[in-house]
Amino acid sequence: MNQTNGSNIKTRDTFLETERLEFSTWSEEDRPLASALWGDPEVTKWISRKGFLSEDEIEARLAQEMERQQEMKVQYWPLFDKETGVFVGCCGLRPYAPDEKIYELGVHLTRDHWGKGYALEASKAVIRYAFEELDAHVLFAGHHPENSVSRRLLLKLGFIYKNDEFNELTGKMHPSYILTRSDMESLHLNG
Asked: What are the N-acetyltransferase domain coordinates in residue numbering (predicted)?
């Protein structure tokens, strides 16, 4: 796929697709995309105690995602609109309890892609990938206690509330949920 990022034209490898989205992996060249996403305080107010990430924190986040992909074969993968090639955000996994094959699902979208169904579409693909390709036993997800949109998304995906857990990044207790393979199959997210 040819990807236009400002004036740069780049070929991007895609490893997962949905009807409207292509998933890639983060690279050093994606710093402007990472800054556009994690540099927006409307996005990061849900994931940072300060309500924003500094350039150094964005850089560290990008490095962490790339390292996680190399070591664990998962990350919050960057998403692109199939038709336009525009960067939409990221959706993916990170280890939650690796020895038990439990992964954490996460999705962060750029503000101009909110409310268009991208989070649901991307999350369904990542859930299928987790259970079918990674043989996950359980998926975990949590959200900022004031983020009702994320709560609705997780419930729509079939996640079941378990408890509130302290999130060190925000300093708040986050409602936390799990999804099992049988939960996924009963909701027909696998087809």
From this structure: 21-182
